[in-house]
Amino acid sequence: MLVIRPICAQDYDALYQVAIDSGHGFTSLPVNEELLKSKIARAEASFNKQIDKPFDEGYLMVLEDTKTGQVVGTCGIEAAVGMEDAFYHYRLGTEVYHSQQISVRNEIETLTLCHDYTGAAELCTLFLNKDYRKGNNGRMLSRSRFLFLAQHAERFGDTVIAEMRGVSDENGDSPFYEWLQKHFLGIDFVEADYLSGLGKKTFMAQMMPRSPVYVSLLPKKAQKVIGEVHKSTRPALRLLQAEGFKFRNYVDIFDAGPTVECGLRDIRAVKRSRLVTVKIGTMPHSDEHFIIANTLLADYRAAQAKLLLTESQDSVVISQQIATVMKLNEGDQLRVLAM
Asked: How far apart are the first and last CA of the chain?
């Protein structure tokens, strides 16, 4: 059985391997022992923290194969970005130039550095071991976060965002970043991405262009990738779009990949998930797959199961095995979402 649970200190070696396997562009998990251990400690503190409102908490979870005890994936949610470290984006806008005298009107796209998403929750750190990329595993891992958001909405910003990986080649080089490196930053894309992942963002404020950038003045290959996603990220983008996430003209400052957003309570899975009462017994046959999650915080668990459950039912039968893995007792509440 595959189960999602909060990360703990004992998962360090597995998380380090995920950081290696995820490769270029996975900013949230740089290959750095100090940072990864800090992320684990921060997550452990966040899952046990009493809060009045979301601040800088980070909820990092792992996908564990209970048969082997192996960690085979990760997923995470940031409670409110930019509360301690600046959270940068480029905002795509338009400037209009019009002269009646010469009868010319031009609309010019611009990129303006901004912090507009400060305070938003962020979906992040989604990774699944290649041997487990089959069936509903990836979909369950990604969408399980919406059940956590639904159950613990008070712990997150009202808007939820996801940064989509932008276009880069097999070496991690980005056409958009080539221009940025040449004229402003002076370091390569992999190094800049790594420093960003470490939280060392001072160089951004010091070196990024402060005035709006005219898109038409960029090299054609840089213009072409603005708002475009890496080919490996397209399935993740389609899944988010199906949940109601939309592109609102914000792009990553390094690779110009799109950021998509949705109101927390407008997310399709958040609205459609519901609570039912647990009954423990022999599970009746069903072919319908559900994502299931308990209502706990520090002992949060999520998984997938075939349940016999109709819209009119307010209870569901699960096996003792599932109940044990999910830390559920008879009469507890279980959040469910049809796959």
From this structure: 17
Which residue from 83, 27, 25 is spatially nearest to 195, judged by alpha carbons? 27
Q: Would you state the CATH architecture of domain 2-90+114-269?
A: 3-Layer(aba) Sandwich (3.40)
| Cβ contacts of 186 within 8 Å, gap of 6 or more | 207
Which structure tokens are listed for 93?
A: 């806008």
Is 230 marked active-site?
Answer: yes
Instruction: Provide the angle, in degrees to the nearest 10, between the axes of the packed helices 234-242 and 137-151.
Output: 40
**H or E element that contains 76:** strand 70-78
Segment 127-156, tens digit of pLDDT: 999 999 999 999 999 999 999 999 999 999
Global pTM value: 0.91
- Closest C-alpha among 59, 70, 56 to residue 18: 70
Domain residue ranges of the chain, discontinuous segments joined by +:
2-90+114-269, 273-338
Which one of 24, 89, 152, 230 is the catalytic residue?
A: 230
Q: What is the chain's alpha carbon radius of gyration, rounded to the nearest angstrom?
A: 22
Alpha helices per DSSP H over 98-156: 137-151
Q: For residue 229, what are its two tokens?
A: 């996603």
CA angle 229, 232, 235 (to 5 degrees): 80
For the domain covering 273-338, report its CATH number. 2.40.40.20
